[in-house]
């Protein structure tokens, strides 16, 4: 199950520096973790999770395989992208294919790095990109509405439902609000997603600050955090320069470097985790002598669908899931200790998998 986060931003905000740091870090992990660069602008990275190493230690696993996230370095955007300016059409096509948007904003002052608008104002930059996406959505909605006219006249129920949702989106967009601000009922969620509206995608604002501001941010990143909170989005503070340096160091050296800067962890780790949370994802584990592995599922996933992430047959032929909570697995020394203590449960088809569950699936055939 692949989850893609698109990295977007205006020119000279540090977007490509961040992406390069991500892919270099991932390449350095390649000896231990599966990694691939699918295209020059697509990279897969491990989701940092200290729990996995602990499980591997207890289960004496030969191999450790983390959950993964895909990041896409999307073509730079300029004003007028919705009308095809710059690489506008390519930008809009690429962004349609991602699940979430990591919006890199320049929150650093540097006379040597020019800004396309001649000033440092991350909130205005965010509005520039949001406006282009909103204009593109309005244009897309208009075309869809025209294509629905005949079907609606013929009483097509699906077309009538689609028109209702498109009108909700139009109302928000015309009021200067993104489509993600629209409250959608659970029964409409699938149809809403099918509309593929750019502004319906969840957003993570990535505040790129100077090296000496990486720990606490600055007034620019504070304004972005305020904006993000107001619109129900997320934000992280990161220094692309630091991340680029870290990506070229050995793990021990990187740890020392972070300590010297007063940072507890790399900003990229925070960014990956924030992207994971933004998409409503969680992790369950499988652990044994062969491998300890983290699997990605959406929050609220039932046991058979979680089994299907490993193999489609596991879902189709699901019998039950033997389940141990992570804390119990660790405190009781693994699966046999959990079983002896009565902490290993047999769960059926209606069980909602919890974050951190250590699972063993039983299936027929």
Question: Care to describe what's here?
Answer:
- This protein has helices spanning 15-28, 50-59, 88-96, 122-153, 157-174, 189-194, 219-230, 240-246, 251-260, 267-278, 303-310, 312-316, 326-331, 335-340; strands at 4-8, 42-46, 63-65, 68-73, 100-106, 203-208, 234-238, 281-287, 291-298, 318-324, 345-347, 358-363.
- It is of the alpha/beta class and 365 residues long.
- The protein has 14 helices and twelve strands.
- The strands form three sheets. It has a six-stranded mixed β-sheet, with helices on both faces. Strands 3-9-8 form a three-stranded mixed β-sheet, sandwiched between helices.
- The two termini are 23 Å apart.
- It is flat and about 60 Å long.
- Residues 28-38 have low confidence and may be disordered.
Q: Provide the residue-averaged pLDDT.
A: 86
Quote the distance from N terminus to C terminus.
23 Å
Which term fits the overall shape?
flat
Q: What spatial order of strands do you see in the largest sheet?
A: 2-4-1-5-6-7
Let me know the number of strands. 12
Tally of helical segments:
14
Q: List the secondary-structure elements in sequence, H or E.
A: EHEHEEHEHHHEHEHHHEEHHEHHEE
Residue windows where pLDDT falls under 50 for at least 5 positions: 28-38
Strand content: 15-25%
Helix content: 40-55%
Largest sheet: 6 strands, mixed
Rg: 23 Å
Structural class computed from helices and strand pairing? alpha/beta
């Amino acid at each position: 199950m692949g989850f893609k986060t698109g990295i977007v931003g205006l020119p000279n905000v540090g977007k490509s520096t961040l992406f390069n740091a991500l892919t270099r870090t991932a390449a350095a992990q390649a000896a231990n973790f599966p990694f691939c660069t699918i295209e020059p602008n697509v990279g897969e990275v491990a989701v940092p999770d200290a729990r996995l190493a602990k499980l591997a230690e207890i289960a004496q696993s030969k191999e450790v395989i983390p959950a993964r996230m895909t990041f896409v370095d999307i073509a730079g955007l300029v004003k007028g992208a919705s009308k095809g300016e710059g690489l506008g059409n390519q930008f809009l096509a690429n962004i349609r294919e991602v699940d979430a948007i990591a919006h890199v904003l320049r929150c650093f002052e540097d006379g040597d790095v020019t800004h396309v608008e001649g000033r440092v104002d991350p909130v205005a930059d965010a509005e520039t990109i949001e406006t282009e996406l909103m204009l593109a959505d309005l244009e897309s909605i208009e075309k869809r509405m025209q294509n629905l006219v005949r079907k609606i006249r013929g009483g097509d129920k699906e077309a009538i439902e689609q028109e209702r949702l498109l009108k909700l989106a139009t109302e928000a967009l015309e009021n200067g609000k993104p489509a993600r601000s629209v409250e959608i009922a659970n029964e409409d969620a699938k149809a809403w997603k099918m509309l593929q509206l750019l502004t319906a995608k969840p957003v993570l604002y990535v505040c790129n600050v100077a090296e000496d501001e990486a720990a606490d941010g600055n007034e620019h990143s504070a304004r972005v955090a305020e904006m993000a909170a107001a619109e129900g989005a997320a934000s992280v503070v990161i220094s692309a320069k630091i991340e680029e340096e870290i990506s070229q160091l050995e793990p021990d050296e990187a740890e020392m470097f972070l300590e010297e800067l007063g940072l507890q962890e790399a900003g990229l780790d925070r960014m990956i985790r924030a992207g994971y949370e933004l998409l409503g994802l969680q992790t369950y584990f499988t652990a044994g002598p062969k491998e300890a592995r983290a699997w990605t599922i959406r929050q609220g996933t039932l046991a058979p669908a979680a089994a299907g992430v490993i193999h489609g047959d596991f879902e189709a032929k699901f019998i039950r899931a033997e389940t141990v909570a992570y804390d119990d697995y660790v405190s009781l020394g693994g699966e046999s200790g959990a079983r002896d203590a009565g902490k290993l449960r047999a769960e059926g088809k209606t069980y909602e998998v919890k974050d951190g569950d250590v699972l063993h699936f039983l299936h027929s055939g």
